[in-house]
Amino acid sequence: MTSFPADLRGAPPKLLGRLGRGRLGETWRAEEPTGEAVAAKVVPLDRVPDPAAAVQAVRALGAIRDPHLLAIRRAFLAEGQLWLLQALDEGVPVRRALSVVAPTPGQVVAIGHGILCGLVALEAAGRNHGAVHRESVHLGPDGRARLGDWGLEQAVRGVVVPAAEDLAATAAVLEALLAAGGGAPPAALAELLGAWRARRPPRLTARAARAA
Prior knowledge:
single chain, alpha+beta, five-stranded antiparallel β-sheet, three-stranded antiparallel β-sheet, 7 helices
């Protein structure tokens, strides 16, 4: 087994329950020694081309802070796996929310604005999300949309997803929300979706969202 430098290794948190499984690996609800609740994504090293580079790349993502992004807490190697710890949102993924309540068109506009603000923050840092879907968009108890799993595909596997694909995926999430609500989109949301379909720069779309 490959031995990694001490500065790349770390102590895993206490795993409390499985949250789900994605392209990189399983995600668990976990608790840090400090008592902080986190989402721990555990990636087998056979899915990581360069474990040392992956740890450094994910740690660099941790410097990005925005209220619409779930913060990255730690990245390290332990037990033959790559551990990625992200702030745990006490809300629910969009997919689960759709099974409970049908959103109004106005709520969809607010969710779209939140997603877009997160994408703009990533763009400003020279990053893309790479995995926008109904599981990675979380609706918090305050109603705010927050993005999880952002930038991890690129950092861990070197997979670069064009910004246009993030925008198209965002449009798909909002269209699913609208379909569940059974309502026609208001003019502001129609403008946003039109901009996404035309693949305009995210900043232009964010301005339209703020004006909604």
